[in-house]
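can u do me a favor
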């Protein structure tokens, strides 16, 4: 089982100072993220992910650039997005950028493609949010085709000229994709929310699946079963049907310290940075989210280990990624939490799975 971290580079507003002021600049958040990735690499974690947003309250709109900077500061950790908003991107450009990242990093690049939670990229790049499903499905098909072939004709076959859904990308004939990645098949994951059809399509395509567990894992058991059933019916090997999960995360030596430390910073994040304004986020809601059956992983290493193992048993997960750097949490607290993930939680989970 792989373990890693990811961040969207939130820029939380400073509510006690100048109106509109931020607690961190984009430059500071970017530098902190690079340092946290170095720490994760040195501590033995397997993967680091960078999100993509096009808003004033997030630092990262070009995750591949940040990942390239991380690549030059690390040695072994894998580099992925979290997610690439493929609905409003050009698949050819995405592939070329990540092929280049793969070369820069010596074969460590991955793509996590998704529709995205926030809608701001649609007007920015000239797309209609109403078309998000057709845009994503067509562009993901094309991205997978580009991974398999150095020269691409699109649609790939004459009978694709009139597909059941509209084509979102212009036609290509013998289009060259260069450079090629170091990896023979650069991993491309599909990020999903809670739509059953997305799980089925991921299984049919035989691509790894990643889901954010903002609620408890029990809500996703049936959906992951749909994914694996669709994959098996399409003839894909079980080993190719990987499942990764991600959760908001903070670890400390004791559960009480973890909750008391994290709550005020996390409340600021929920109140300011979520897709829909949340209003006041009371402590009792936080404690419920962090309790049994909730999606928030905040607690001692032993508690978090138990909950990751429960998700693994229910969903058959192959990867866990902790969303870190949330809200106004100081750098030192985030670094300590990552160290606990790498040195105590991940080894305990791997040992339990092996036994």
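np, heres the sequence
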């Amino acid at each position: 089982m792989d373990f890693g971290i990811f961040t969207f580079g939130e820029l939380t507003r400073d509510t006690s100072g100048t109106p509109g002021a931020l607690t961190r600049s984009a430059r500071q958040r970017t530098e902190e993220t690079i340092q946290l990735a170095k720490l994760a690499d040195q501590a033995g974690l397997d993967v680091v992910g960078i999100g993509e947003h096009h808003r004033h309250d997030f630092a990262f709109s070009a995750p591949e650039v940040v990942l390239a900077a991380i690549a030059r500061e690390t040695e072994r950790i894998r580099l992925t997005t979290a997610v690439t908003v493929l609905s409003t991107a050009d698949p050819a450009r995405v592939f070329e950028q990540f092929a280049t990242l793969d070369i820069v990093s010596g074969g460590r690049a991955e793509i996590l493609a998704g529709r995205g939670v926030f809608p701001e990229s649609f007007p920015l790049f000239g797309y209609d949010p109403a078309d998000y499903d057709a845009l994503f499905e067509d562009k993901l098909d094309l991205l997978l085709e580009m991974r398999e072939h150095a020269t691409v004709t699109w649609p790939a076959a004459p009978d694709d000229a009139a597909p059941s859904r509209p084509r979102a990308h212009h036609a290509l004939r013998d289009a060259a994709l260069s450079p090629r990645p170091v990896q023979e098949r650069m991993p491309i994951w599909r990020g999903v929310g809670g739509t059953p059809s997305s799980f089925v399509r991921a299984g049919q395509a035989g691509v790894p699946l990643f889901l954010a567990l903002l609620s408890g894992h029990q809500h996703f058991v049936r959906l992951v079963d749909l994914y694996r059933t669709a994959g098996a019916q399409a003839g894909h090997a079980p080993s190719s049907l990987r499942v990764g999960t991600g959760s908001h995360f903070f670890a400390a030596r004791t559960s009480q310290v973890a909750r008391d430390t994290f709550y005020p910073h996390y409340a600021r994040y929920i109140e300011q940075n979520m897709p829909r304004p949340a209003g006041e986020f009371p402590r009792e809601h936080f404690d419920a989210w962090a309790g049994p059956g909730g999606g928030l992983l905040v607690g001692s290493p032993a508690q978090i280990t138990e909950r990751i193992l429960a998700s693994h048993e229910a969903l058959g997960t192959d990867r866990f990624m902790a969303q870190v750097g949330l809200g106004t949490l100081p750098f030192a607290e985030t670094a300590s939490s990552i160290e606990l993930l790498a040195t105590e939680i991940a080894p305990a989970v791997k040992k339990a799975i092996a036994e």
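The chain is about 45% helix and 15% strand. hope that helps!!
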